[in-house]
Amino acid sequence: MLNGLQFPDCTKTDQKSYMPPRNIKWNFTEFDKLQAGDLYKALKLRQDIFIIEQDCIYPDLDNVDYHSFHLLGYSGDTLAAYLRVVPPGTIFTEPSLGRIIVAREYRKTGIGSELVKRGIKHTHQLYNLCPIRIEAQAHLRKFYQGLGFSKVTDAYEKDGIPHIQMLLN
Questions:
Q1: Which DSSP state fits 2?
Q2: Residues sharing a CB contact under 8 Å with residue 55, sequence separation 6 or more, in sequence order
Q3: pLDDT tens by residue, 19-40
Q4: 0.90 cut: is pTM over it?
Q5: Which of 40, 51, 66, 153 has a CA that sits 20 to 30 A from residue 32's CA?
Q6: How many Å apart are CA 2 and CA 119, to the nearest integer?
Q7: Quick one: CATH architecture of 24-133?
Q8: 101 in the Ramachandran plot: left (φ > 0), alpha (ψ -120 to 50) or beta?
Q9: Are 75 and 21 in contact (CB under 8 A)?
Q10: What tens digit of pLDDT does each residue of 97-134 get?
Q11: Cα pseudo-dihedral 15, 140, 62, 161, rounded to 10
Q12: CB of 118 closer than 8 Å to CB of 28
């Protein structure tokens, strides 16, 4: 249970059960308090996944980072997971989670669920338990539904990739 919300166990797959790595160190901070090395690693991971791995040329640096809070999950010196918490009124009326990513070598370990749950917790602490909106890649709908989000739009294309908006009330 997280802030009164009950989440299903999203760490299980059809093949075997996974637990989030126990050695992840989490850092949640405002943009101005990000260390240069942390910012570099976050932008590099975003580039490696969203632009190179997904073969999608889009303007990642959108000026939203300045206004956002950033959640970074480290395994040793390696940035394993990242997301940003965007204030209400910046992209959507509601606060939102965005740029949600897990490094390739940490996928299927449960760290993605842990990342989003922590993002939800921080967002609720910042913005008094109000609804949270995400703009998710459509193929991740079931993952986010497992974390309590509901689809609120039909699929649409953004930067050449099908997306949907989802809301956590």
A1: B
A2: none
A3: 556 699 999 999 999 999 999 9
A4: no
A5: 51
A6: 11
A7: 3-Layer(aba) Sandwich (3.40)
A8: beta
A9: yes
A10: 999 999 999 999 999 999 999 999 999 999 997 899 99
A11: 110
A12: yes
